[in-house]
From TrEMBL:
InterPro entries per record: TagF, TagF_sf
Name listed for the protein in its UniProt record: Type VI secretion system protein ImpM
Domain of life: Bacteria
NCBIfam families: VI_minor_4
């Protein structure tokens, strides 16, 4: 099992301090598939209303979806105002559902760092530097492994998401936003 101190979060998406998409420390194999999924199921949801009012989703992905990955997704945009969510994520040694409560402080820190970047307080290099101080926590989670996809928000219960048909389970996270077509 990899040393947790070596598992640093990376990111993919848009930042107001940058002109277009920015990616750091995430594998291209994940980013390509994640980009397609977000484009199909989340971009239109995160494009409604103000970015500050949009939920910050916390997620855990298991091996049957995109490979083990966990982190946060928040509304963001590039310098020109083109919206696309910012994902901050790390590849945990195990995709155990209990991470949502055991690592709550880590998710809080990812959310705060992502919000600062989204609020134009840092560029891609600044975000990468801040995230280097937030390695995946050395935690012991003995829950069942998650094969699929789980989303939650701060203080809320985790919800299993069907990656192929997520519309119904995503709707409660985005009240008032139009569902998937």
């Amino acid at each position: 099992m990899p040393d947790a101190a070596l598992i640093l979060p990376g990111f993919f998406g848009k930042l107001p301090a940058m002109g277009d998409f920015v990616t750091r420390r995430l594998p291209a194999s994940f980013v390509g598939r994640w980009d397609r999924w977000i484009s199909q199921h989340l971009v239109h949801r995160f494009s409604q209303g103000s970015m500050e009012d949009a939920p910050v989703l916390r997620f855990l992905l298991g091996g049957e979806t995109f490979g083990a990955m966990t982190g946060v997704i928040l509304a963001s945009a590039d310098r020109a105002g083109r919206r696309f969510p910012l994902t901050i994520a790390a590849a945990p040694p195990l995709a155990a559902a209990g991470i949502s409560s055991v690592a709550a402080d880590w998710f809080d820190a990812l959310e705060a760092t992502g919000t600062s970047a989204r609020d134009n307080k840092m560029d891609g290099d600044g975000l990468a530097t801040c995230l280097a101080a937030l390695p995946y926590p050395a935690i012991n989670v003995s829950d069942d492994m998650t094969p699929g996809m789980i989303f939650w928000t701060r203080g809320c219960e985790a919800v299993e998401i069907d990656a192929d048909a997520p519309e119904i389970t995503l709707d409660p996270f985005f009240p008032g936003a139009p569902g998937d077509a």
